[in-house]
Amino acid sequence: ERDKFYMSRIVVLELLQALKFKSPLPDTNLLLLVQFVCADIGTRLAESTIIQKHMISTLPGCTTAAMECMRQYISELLDFIADMHTLTKLKNHMKACCQPLHEDTFGGNLKVGLAQVAAMEISKGNHRDNKAVVRYLPWLYHPPSTMQQGPKEFIECVSHIRQLSWLLLGSLTHCALHQGSISCMPIPLDAGSHIADHLIVILIGFPEQSKTSVLHMCSLFHAFMFAQLWTIYCEQAAAAPSLQNQTQTEFSSSAILTGLEFWSRVTPSILQLMAHNKVMVEMVCLHVISLMEALQECNSTIFVKLIPMWLPMIQSNLKHLSAGLQLRLQAIQNRVNHQCLQGQTSGAPPFVLRKWLQCTQFKMAQVEIQSSEAASQFYPM
């Protein structure tokens, strides 16, 4: 009985050794080990240039108990995902031990794969009392105090938001690959107001804290990237089969309402940030326009409800925007008008969601690497 899952234990331990940079595994092999665990818990990695569909399908589809072996290490996976420097370390490690053919995309693929494992495990362990998410993310329901918003609280909020962003990427990737399948909701919707408090700390503290380092400078990017992901997460939750006691219609309405409440809490802080100076106005408008483009691409219901509030906010500062940003804003308005005339329904097709998730994953990985290497300011919009 002790040796029953010997093979699975070896795979999991080899994966953990590789994540600690103690094992010189090629990128393809490392992702295949992640897929081995994913298959046991009921998900799979997205196809990429590193790991193709036929490679994923060759792994066993039966129960291997890999997750039984991995369960005690979920906290370590979450630490790897949360660490700003792991992608840079991984990049350097791969250069030293093997031929790094996919150094620009591998780190993001790996973090999302690990996030899928963690997201599925947390989802299955949450039940009605959200026991799993409280165990793994004890800070989630304890946002920073409004009375204490110094440098320490600011950087902690950025770290928490980045970790949540990777978890949401893992959850949404599962949803995009398994439409109508097992629900994957690691972060309960009722945590939305507490997460909004984390974003408010970042937005209010950004003008002062952004001068400290590149990591602080990129905090606005991470805040808006999370906001995109949380909005789409609420959309996907509304479309997914409800695991709650509520009826499907009640749960769908609750999910959409959660997204709207999130933005009702965050938007005043965005306006407050724009009130600082012209430079801040253009920077914030750049992020808001990118946000609108992303939500529009995913055919978001929440976006349709928020656009009447966001457009005047941007248009009132039109004179401070570059010609390029003004053109992007006009394109958004034209598409909104077109969709209103056509009466298009909400919801992005799976392939559109997958494409958007891949782009988001790449941007987040690149910003983390740039921040870790203390490079120049980098906003991949």
TrEMBL record:
The UniProt entry, under InterPro entries, shows: UNC79
Protein name according to UniProt: Protein unc-79
Q: Which gene encodes it?
A: UNC79_3
